Amino acid sequence: MAQNPDVAMARLDEQKALQAARIAHDPFSPKVFVGSGLAYSSGFPLSIEGTAPSVAQARASQFLFNQQQRYVTAQARENVRGAGFVTSSKRDEIAFRTVSLYLDADRAARLSGMAAKQVDSLEKVLETVRLRVQDGRELPIEEKKANLELQRARQRMQALAEDQDYNERSLAVVLGYSADDRARAASDERKAPEMPADEEAAAERALSSNKELKRLESAMIAKGLDIKAQKAARLPRADLVAEYALLAQYNNYNKFFKSFQRNNGQIGVSLQIPIWAGPGVAAAVAQAEIDNSHLRIEMEAARNRIALAVHQSFQDIRKAETAREVSRADLDVARESLSILLAQQGEGRASLRQVEEARFLENEKWIAFYDAQFADEKAKLNLLRETGELIASLR
Question: Which uninterrupted H or E stretch holds 386?
């Protein structure tokens, strides 16, 4: 949450929306400009950008009543709220990605260790078979079969080691480190997160806390303010205006005017009443209403998608729990079989080859059990992501 670049960029977008709200409210703040309109006049003194030539001049302006700009300001503030939901959604997304990569890195490390043990077992099997072939008690093809199994195990060990390298580098990147770094998962046992009571409660929680739905709701409110702002273009507006000018005596004022004074000022209200705003206002209103209808349809589709995702997550959890129980039972059988063979080997009734093959099979069952265990963890964490409780459960 502190170092991930995607979260950092979402925070910057939120700050950008906040500054846009300040810009929208800016016309309601008074502005004062000081300068000079100094000029040489030949004949009648003409204006310099709408004002008489002057040694020094000051202007002030401010919106007094502009309903259209008020709606624009309210829309910008609502956009800030929507940007906050985008940032929260990005944090949830990054949290789930981090957890997934952490589990992938842990799984690859565990499976890589199991694969290394399988290679050790198959190397012992190959050595035993090779001796038996040399003694004439096995056919040469048995040595080739044992060597093939060893090569396959080495190939899988290499693939798992590469997966571990990639997952640990990916985990480092999502944590905000360089792609050359590797973040290793701790080997500690993880506490099972607290899950929702039932599917109905989870769906209700997901719909009430989903950041995407809240963002769409905020976008609909902002679009409604946009519609009001477009309609307000037909309303009158009033601006506060003030001006001061210090005139020079050498600009022929005394030749063309009966009286002359150097210090001059005025303050008042500029009132504008639209008589005919043109067809653009109606078109802009219609366009904003179409966008609002689009958001309403998008929001309904998002509700259905969230409800379906929660239902699918519960199904995935049930499947993963069943698969874990089956793989656990399968592992128990393999471990017990290995224990029996070890006892028989001690009595001289089982060969080293049988023991190592049984040990290889046990490691295979461990790999299957780890896969089922990680699938179960991911399914549960995915449900917590849908309900918006993932970050809280991790803390």
Answer: helix 352-387
SS3 58: strand
Residue 73: both structure tokens together: 């300001």
Burial class of 2 by CB neighbour count within 10 A (0 to 12, 13 to 18, 19+): exposed
Nearest by Cα to 245 from 43, 64, 47: 47
In tens, the pLDDT along 82-98 reads: 999 999 888 888 899 99
> Is the separation of the CB atoms in 237 and 272 below 8 Å?
yes
Cα of first residue to Cα of last residue in the chain, in angstroms, is 12
Q: How do residues 327-352 score in pLDDT, each as one tens digit?
A: 999 999 999 998 998 898 888 888 88
Give the range of the structural domain holding residue 284, as residue numbers without chain letter: 66-235+274-394
What is the C-alpha separation between 335 and 365, in angstroms, rounded?
A: 9
Residue 185, domain member (yes or no):
yes
Structure tokens at 309: 């995702």
Among 37, 71, 18, 36, CA closest to 221: 71
Centre a 10 Å sphere on the Cβ of residue 118 and count the other Cβ atoms it contains.
26
Give the span between the Cα atoms of 107 and 187, in whole angstroms: 10
- CATH of residue 159: 1.20.1600.10
251 CB burial (10 A radius; 0-12, 13-18, 19+):
buried
DSSP state, residue 258: S
Distance, C-alpha 179 to centroid of its chain: 20
d(Cα 27, Cα 62) in Å, to the nearest integer? Answer: 6
Q: How many domains does the chain have?
A: 1
The DSSP call for residue 51 is: B
Which residue has tokens 């030949």? 42
Note the pTM of the prediction, 2 decimals: 0.74
In what order do the strands lie in the sheet containing 263-272?
31-37, 54-65, 237-246, 263-272
